[in-house]
Amino acid sequence: MTLNFDNKTIEQIQEIIANANMVLEKRELINEGMNKIRDIINEYNINPQELIYGLGMQVTTKSIKENKKYRIAIGNNEYYTSNKKLVKKLTESSEYQELIKEQPKMIVLDVFMRAYNIDGTYEQDFPLNAKYNGERFHLNKKGVFNSITKHHYDMYLKTNNFTDGSHSRKKFITDVSV
Asked: Looking at residue 103, what is its pLDDT?
């Protein structure tokens, strides 16, 4: 990150330097503390996971997860695409272009994937686990709304005279989950 100091007063520059020094000092203290903890763990041959559990915490490991590929068949062609975005080769194909002209709802990724994933893996990974106004849809486990869920959520807010907020989102998730 670079800063433009042209329009800064001497006091402002000094404040920026002081804040940067505080951050550096804090990082140094954290590193010193971590090194001491590492030394103790090694000296007493402590299992780090057991230590974390003993402190009442949980060990989580984030793995780098590639987007799963789904098999799509449209026309006489097969494509592999993710649940995040259709591959360019597919979206530029004449079959896809013709399909979205005839059925504009197919431009919605979830609708398209449910209709054209040929081995059913998309529906297994994203089950229709919610229902509102007689329509079933997928509700993400993390509470992240896709366009279809967002549409139902907006209707839910309007129908119930709620305003958007964490309480409304939680209530929606509870009310529509099946």
From this structure: 93
How buried is 120 (Cβ within 10 angstroms: 0-12 exposed, 13-18 middle, 19+ buried)? exposed
- pLDDT over 60 at 64, yes or no: no
Q: Per the domain annotation, does 2 fall within a domain?
A: no
Q: Are residues 71 and 119 in the same domain?
A: yes
From residue 46, how far is each of 133, 145, 150 by CA, in Å? 55, 43, 48
pLDDT at residue number 46: 77
Say which DSSP state 6 is in.
T
Query: What's the count of helices (H) and strands (E) in the chain, helices before strands?
Result: 8, 4
Q: Which domain holds residue 173?
A: 127-178
Residue 78 shares a structural domain with residue 119: yes
Sign of CA pseudo-dihedral 54, 56, 62, 68: positive
d(CA 62, CA 75): 39
Whole-structure pTM over 0.85, yes or no? no
On whether both 47 and 25 belong to a single domain, the answer is yes
